[in-house]
Amino acid sequence: MKDIKIKDAAYFPRPQAIYKALPIALTMGEAAAEYMAGWEFNGLIILASAGEYDDGKEWLHVSVSRKSRLPMYEELTRIKRDFIGDDKKAVFILPEKEKHVNIHDYCLHLFYSAENPLPDFTGGSGSI
């Protein structure tokens, strides 16, 4: 993984004041502090991290969770809007069963790359 300074990265989220910043130690510990930030809003816990994956591209990873249920679609789309942006494409990953790791029962994950490596899934129609 290359040295990513997310606090200086243009794509790293800077959410509105309604999101309460969480201490990094509460989220993932000191080792991840340079690459991660966390927030809380209305019972949602939002963690954002940046990294380079097997494709050699930098990706922003935004996870959103609740203590006792999965976030609803409306909550996930709000987090996408507020942490990634309405004008950007994000992907929600459902991995192969053998690659699925469940650290938290009620957590969903969004990924965004500024390089936008995904195809236009609309087939040119502009609508999915």
Summarize the structure.
The chain has two helices and six strands.
Major sheet details? 6 strands, antiparallel
Number of helices: 2
- The main sheet orders its strands as 1-2-3-4-6-5
Helix content: 10-25%
Pattern of helices and strands: EHEEEHEE
Which of globular, elongated, flat, extended, rod-shaped describes the shape?
Answer: globular
Mean pLDDT: 80
Which residues form runs of ≥5 with pLDDT under 50? 26-34
Hey, roughly how much beta strand do the residues contain?
25-35%
**What is the gyration radius calculated from CA atoms?**
15 Å
Number of strands: 6
Amino-to-carboxy terminus distance: 34 Å
Q: Based on helices, strands and strand pairing, what is the structural class? A: alpha+beta
Write the layout of secondary structure elements.
Layout: E1 20-22, H1 24-27, E2 36-41, E3 44-52, E4 58-65, H2 73-83, E5 91-92, E6 107-112
Antiparallel strand pairs: 1-2, 2-3, 3-4, 4-6, 5-6
General description of the model:
The chain has 128 residues and is α+β, with helices and mostly antiparallel strands. It has 2 helices and 6 strands. Strands 1-2-3-4-6-5 form a 6-stranded antiparallel β-sheet. β2 (36-41) and β3 form a beta hairpin.
